[in-house]
Amino acid sequence: MSFTSSKAMLQDTRFRIQEADYESTIVLKIVADLFQALNNTDIRYCHWKSNLRLERGLYGQTDMDLLVDPQHRQTFKQLLEKYRIKPILAPPGKRYPSIEDYLGFDPLTGRLFHLHVHYQLVLGEQFVKNYHLPLENEFLDSVQIHSGVKIPSPELELIVLSIRALLKYRDRDVIKDIFSIRSSGMPSHILEEFNWLLGQTSIEKVSDVLTNISNVIPPDLILNLLTTILVSPRAGYKLFHLRKQARRVVRRYQRHERLQATITYFVEAWRRRKSFLRFKPERKMTLPTGGVTLALVGADGAGKTTLSRELVKWLSWKLDVHPYYLGSKQPSWMSKFSYLLFRIARRGQRTLSRIVGENAFITRFIEALRQILLYSHYLFIGHDRYGRYLAGRRNASEGSIVIFDRYPLEAPLDGPQIHAIREDSTGLIVRTFSKLERNLYSKVQMPDLFCVLEVSPEISIRRKPDHQWMAIETKNLLLRKLTDSMKANDKEVRIAHINAGLPLEQVLLQIKRAIWGAL
Q1: Of 8, 48, 174, 312, which one has the fewest beta carbons inside 10 Å?
Q2: Where are the domains of the chain?
């Protein structure tokens, strides 16, 4: 069977590219501006792989892999800084030599985009990336413009895709193909890339390019793989032998010996397991300059919890994010138990008042006990909040982003309660509990960013019809007073005033812009 007829059969029957089930993509303006600026400079770069999905990357739906000439590294970084694209750190085990990660933000849409920046062509098995192919100059010298981005020739991309596919072809994939178990051992997205790239070039052109780089990659390896993919993409024995040949070819470019690479693979595969004996979620990317804490504060109905949930979803696409609720609606068992005892004492006092009178010794004793139990409950609530605050601070110190839903300010804004409800009392018990509570809350330091959600009482009541107008207005006034005081006393505190009465998407965009400025 000829290459031409095999290629037609592939396109017509086997691996036609499926219609994308995602929204029609457009280029984010900041991404378009970035690549236009890159194209207008002398910086040598290209988007070196997966150009089938380049448009998705330009809209922030998937990663973009850029190969940059290492001699232009500093100029390239300066350009990224101009567009406020920030470096981020991959978690341990996902960091590879000559590869850097950057995260960008489009202020018009609030979308994030992610750049993998390669200064060498480092590739290989999953979790290891054990090989460096010295073909950077060939890639950078062959560029052409596609969707406003420089990409390599389809021949070179197809050649390196072949090496990548063989190195990632696992023993279990061989078994799947030999016995025709479920789907193909070659992943569907890899086969789609083969199909797309073959549509951009011809076998003859690929063969010509292979002749020029035969000192790095032998032509027969790639041509045999393409024949196999076109004619019988589940030929397990053939693909197994081609994988062995590929490993021999790239052995001289490996970073670690085969045994060490295999051990690294299994260690990482175990570390990234999804459930079995896993006690902590897999860590995502972090900020190299340290984490950021931000707090959402506002009156009832401002949307704190909803916004917190949406921000976690937005940031956790790439970054390590930890949300913490600092309100009183998630009490510990001690807080629950103390409140249960308080309710029992309160009911007992009411019953005794009716039976023996309010001034009876036993009634006054139960009343005093009831107050002590209430103060204990507030103290336990404070410990709950402080414990979650400390956990958030620990995560932030490790480079994560921490979102606090509510933040201890003053009563009734999730601050100390005892002094507020008994401020006129001079009793020893009240003063003792009040001092303990205020000392506890005084340990809570300001977050890196306050997002103050400003909403009118009318909108608050519409969203929370079971709340009282006067209570909402009191919280709004107190919040304004506190934020004004913060600005006056601490010039470094960052406060973003958010109009929370707008539709959700507009409120989120305001907060996203404020957060990006604080990172």
Answers
A1: 8
A2: 3-271, 292-518
Helix then strand then coil, % of the chain, to nearest 5: 55, 15, 35
- In contact, 457 and 424? CB cutoff 8 Å: no
The Cα–Cα gap between 357 and 197 comes to: 91
Q: Strand 149-151 relative to strand 321-325: parallel, antiparallel, unpaired?
A: unpaired
Asked if 143 contacts 130 with a C-beta cutoff of 8 angstroms, the reply is no
Indicate the DSSP class of residue 25: P
Query: Which residue spans within 15-98 are E strands per DSSP?
Result: 45-47, 64-68, 86-88
Query: Is 0.90 topped by the overall pTM?
Result: no
Sign of the dihedral defined by the CA atoms of residues 361, 366, 371, 375, in that order:
positive
- Counting every residue written for the chain, the total comes to 519
User: Which of 380, 382, 385, 384 minimizes the C-alpha distance to 342?
Assistant: 380
Q: How many CB atoms lie within 10 A of CB 306?
A: 15
CA-nearest of 381, 383, 402, 377 to 392 is: 402
Q: Which pLDDT value is given to residue 6?
A: 43
Pairing of strands 401-405, 321-325: parallel
For 279-324, what is the HEC assignment?
CCCCCCEECCCCCEEEEEEECCCCCHHHHHHHHHHHHCCCECEEEE
Structure token pair of residue 211: 């002749």
Give the number of other Cβ atoms within 10 Å of residue 261's Cβ: 18
- The amino acid that residue 39 corresponds to is N
Tens of pLDDT, residue by residue over 456-483, are 888 888 888 887 888 788 888 888 888 8
Query: 292-518 adopts what CATH topology?
Result: Rossmann fold (3.40.50)
The reported pLDDT for the residue numbered 470 is 80
The Cα 495–Cα 255 span in angstroms is: 48
∠ CA(353), CA(358), CA(360), 5° rounding?
A: 100
Query: In terms of Cα–Cα distance, which of 134, 99, 137, 96 is closest to 116?
Result: 99
What does DSSP assign to residue 502? S
Lowest model confidence (mean pLDDT) among 92-96, 208-212, 318-322: 92-96
- The CA distance from 418 to 375, in Å, is 6
The neighbouring-strand residues paired with 118 are 67, 99
Q: What pairing do the DSSP bridges indicate for beta strands 99-105 and 112-118?
A: antiparallel
Tens of pLDDT, residue by residue over 57-69, are 999 999 999 999 9
Cα 415 to chain centroid, rounded: 31
Q: Are 475 and 412 in contact (CB under 8 A)?
A: yes
What type of residue sits at position 247?
R
Rounded to an integer, what distance in angstroms lies between the CA atom of residue 189 and that of residue 206?
Answer: 21
At 61 the pLDDT is 93
Q: Which two tokens stand for residue 430?
A: 């009240």
| 384 residue type, one letter | D
Tens-place pLDDT, residues 299-330: 888 899 999 999 999 999 999 999 999 988 89
Q: In the structure encoding, which two tokens stand for residue 146, read together?
A: 């596609």
Tell me which H or E stretch contains 496.
strand 495-499
